[in-house]
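help with this record:
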Amino acid sequence: MAFLIALSPARDAGGSELNMSTLESNSIESGRAPVNGISMYYEIHGGRAGVPLVLLHGGGSTIEVTFRRILPIFARNRTVIAVEEQGHGRTTDRPAPFAFETSADDVAALLEYLKVDKADVFGFSNGASVALQVAIRHPQRIRKLVFASAMTRRDGVQPQLWDFIDQADFSNMPQPLKDAFLRVNPDPRQLRAMHDKDAARMKGFTDVPDDVVRSIRAPTLIVVGDHDIVKPEHALELSRQIAGARLLILPGGHGDYLGEAVATQGETRYPELTAGLIEAFLDSP
């Protein structure tokens, strides 16, 4: 989410121009699905046979912010369904707080709308918290789970995150994220509402009980950066809690390994490596 981006050690949370370009993979379909009282924006890329991969972006973000560089790589080999969460980007809001559980229900309803029985789900940051809830609340919809740069307990992140969230204000939301939102949804009132609801969700974050985490049966890959705001030791603990889970620790900060639009590692081939490792997990027996 925006707050994780601002705090990650490898980040500049100032007002520098966002390194944003359109996705290199042209969607074969995009639309807005009526799910649970909202109009949920989605894109479908790739059009390959097999189990599709659902991508869930970070908080305060859009599809392009989180996945602009890695999505086209995934789309070479599989169908990719990228969505925008309630109140983010092109998806409408509802008169209710943001909740990971609600967003998981929205994702499950979208899959039903698209007539997708089962999918692989890859969530980053807040999107990973949504993906986790898909695995918990709708296990029949998920084949494999990729849980990237997120926590299940408040002590799973560096403590300065909570100090920052306690002082969260629209004025310190990174300008590049504001620009990215307004690029696809030019309504500043909706941008402000998204920020405030994201902040409230994180202020109210409660631990996911360990027994609930242990109940997950989907094959799971835990991904974290070695300089992430999420503690690598927390990722290790998660990999031990979920039966058969694998752990992937990559160099860099929050989102660097994705080539995310606000990452600081530049136009490297890093996303190619990350995508290859994730696809090796997805394609394994």
Remarks:
- The first helix runs from residue 2 to 7.
- Residues 85 and 241 are 27 Å apart (CA to CA).
- DSSP finds eleven helices and eight strands in the chain.
